[in-house]
């Protein structure tokens, strides 16, 4: 009863009466509260799968005027939840960035000696039952997030529980939960409400990982990766959810690599998905599930010794990294969840871009060698000509010899 009271107090604190339709993100429904609006600009996730366990570190970039929002994500098995770090995505972006291919040019340009320097251009780029058929299997505070983990065996009971606890999903979203209930999936329900008071409380209390039973493990400052991080993610100085939210890190058992997408069918605006997949082999989506064809932007094997810090922690050994991006111009056409499988080949793929570089020979600009060599040759020829003329002047004239002398 104590745990039940806590859950009700936590999630019932917001009374959601929606006047706007729900906006859905790629792997969960994002629902604003109190007649406000919220939309997802970009969803970026790092997915680690070793054949038995799947980890999803997800970061959403949102916009709108909502001071609070609820987010629902289905998972195939019981999940543990902890805060992720935004810096992970910086490391992955650096690893998968396009690589330059040098295109030499001969004559110096602006910025090359002897011309004046020009401004450089950047390179391109635990639990008690609550209602019939619903169990609250865990509840925790993680940084700016209030997290409840749910199990349900009845779609109606799940919708009722969500409604009674502030997650008042419109029919378009609620209807998409039924297939997950039928497959006995569980759910992570998150309430986001950044504020100055909450941020200071989190910094004092510290954060931690939560296991499948809801126990808090470890510690660490909730602001370590910053609810108001250096990259401008999540403005806790205001009361509006905006920008890149702090990532959440979910871990659950799975014998196949699946990325939940069905709830995006309820989205009212185009969706954009970016996936970094760390697995034993190069991976690819089984199909486009109603969106445009997924685009591979990077694929290669990463040795553990060459991985940056946070990627190495997530990968836990040598892995193949596959970077994918996909757009969903008409989300209502999404047919289900992404299932990723091993690609036919582990062949590496890297994007490239042309980079103009001054042609050099032995570290010396080629134009200087050429011009200098030409000048030297002219100097040698002129010197030889002058020497020859000087010798002629200094040679005494020959006198004819008379006969009989």
TrEMBL record:
Keywords linked to the UniProt accession: Membrane, Signal, Transmembrane, Transmembrane helix
InterPro entries to which the protein is assigned, alphabetical: DUF2330
Biased composition (Gly residues): 205-223
Residue ranges of the TM segments: 366-387
Biased composition (Low complexity): 120-135, 230-239
Extent of the signal sequence: 1-19
Protein name in UniProt: DUF2330 domain-containing protein
Organism: Streptomyces tubbatahanensis
């Amino acid at each position: 009863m104590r745990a039940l009271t806590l859950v009700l107090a936590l999630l019932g604190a917001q009374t959601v009466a929606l006047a706007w339709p729900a906006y859905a993100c790629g792997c969960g429904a994002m629902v604003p509260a109190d007649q406000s609006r919220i939309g997802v600009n970009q969803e970026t996730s790092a997915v680690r799968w070793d054949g038995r366990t799947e980890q999803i570190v997800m970061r959403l970039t949102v916009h709108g005027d909502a001071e609070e929002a609820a987010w629902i994500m289905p998972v195939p098995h019981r999940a543990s939840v902890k805060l992720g770090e935004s810096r992970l995505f910086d490391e992955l972006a650096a690893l998968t960035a396009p690589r330059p291919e040098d295109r030499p040019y001969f004559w110096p340009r602006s910025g090359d000696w002897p011309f004046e320097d020009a401004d450089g251009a950047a390179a391109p780029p635990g639990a008690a039952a609550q209602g019939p058929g619903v169990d609250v299997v865990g509840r925790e505070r993680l940084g700016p997030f209030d997290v409840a983990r749910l199990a349900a065996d009845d779609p109606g009971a799940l919708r009722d529980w969500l409604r009674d606890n502030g997650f008042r999903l419109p029919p378009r979203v609620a209807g998409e939960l039924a297939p997950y209930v039928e497959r006995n999936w569980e759910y992570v329900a998150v309430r986001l409400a950044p504020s100055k008071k909450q941020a200071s409380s989190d910094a004092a209390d510290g954060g931690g990982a939560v296991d499948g039973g809801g126990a808090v493990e470890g510690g660490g400052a909730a602001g370590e990766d910053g609810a108001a991080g250096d990259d401008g993610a999540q403005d806790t100085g205001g009361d509006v959810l905006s920008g890149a939210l702090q990532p959440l890190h979910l871990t659950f058992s799975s014998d196949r690599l699946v990325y939940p997408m069905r709830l995006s069918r309820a989205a009212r605006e185009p969706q954009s998905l970016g996936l970094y997949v760390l697995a034993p082999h190069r991976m690819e989506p089984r199909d486009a599930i109603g969106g445009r064809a997924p685009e591979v932007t990077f694929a290669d094997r990463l040795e553990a010794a060459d991985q940056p810090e946070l990627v190495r922690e997530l990968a836990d050994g040598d892995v193949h990294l596959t970077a994918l991006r996909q757009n969903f111009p008409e989300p209502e056409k999404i047919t289900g969840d992404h299932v990723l499988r091993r690609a036919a080949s582990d062949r590496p793929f890297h994007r490239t871009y042309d980079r103009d570089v001054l042609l050099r020979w032995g570290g010396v600009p080629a134009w200087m060698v050429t011009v200098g060599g030409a000048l030297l040759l002219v100097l040698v020829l002129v010197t030889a000509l002058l020497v020859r003329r000087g010798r002629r002047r200094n040679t005494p004239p020959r006198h004819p010899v008379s006969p009989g002398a």
